[in-house]
Amino acid sequence: MQGQPVDHHYLLRSPVASPCSPRNWENVFAHDPQLIIVDVDFCNTHLLLIIRNGRKYGLYSLSLPLGDDKVGAFLKDFNPQSLPLPDHVSQILPVSNYDFYSSTMCVTMSSAFYINFCGEIN
Questions:
Q1: Of 10, 24, 27, 61, which is most buried by a Cβ count within 10 Å?
Q2: Rg (CA), the chain
Q3: Mean pLDDT over the full length of the chain
Q4: Is the pLDDT of residue 122 over 60?
């Protein structure tokens, strides 16, 4: 969607050692209008996805590496672990993960009251 405003992000990947110039980027997930990626965070073992469907948010953990056989597949094909959220979450933002080798990832959620959630993903 070049040159058009969007309200979500795409998750792309390209091999690090790719000799191609320009790089060959590919979508990690198949196009799904129900999957709106709001933000992502990484550690060495997991990918944390913050998604939105309408006004409802979801928080999902995927084990890394994703594997070449699943690139371009739907989110459900990656067997994501859905992390429980309180009702009526109006926004979720990741907190910087300064230790890439720690499986502890933090997010800040806002609702009718302020919640700071920090959980270990294993």
A1: 61
A2: 15
A3: 81
A4: no
pTM of the model as a whole: 0.78
61 forms beta bridges with: 48, 81
Q: Percent of the chain having pLDDT more than 70?
A: 83
Give 58-67 contacts, CB < 8 A, sequence gap 24+. Answer: 58/82, 58/85, 59/83, 59/85, 59/92, 59/107, 61/121, 66/28
In single-letter form, the type of residue at position 102 comes to: S
Q: Cβ(93)–Cβ(39) under 8 Å?
A: yes
Give CA–CA dist 40/51, Å, rounded. Answer: 9
Full 3-state SS string of 83-120: ECCCCCCCEEEECCCCCCCCCEEEEEEECCCEEEEEEE
Give the integer Cα–Cα distance in Å for 26 and 83.
27
CA gap 20, 26 in Å, rounded: 13
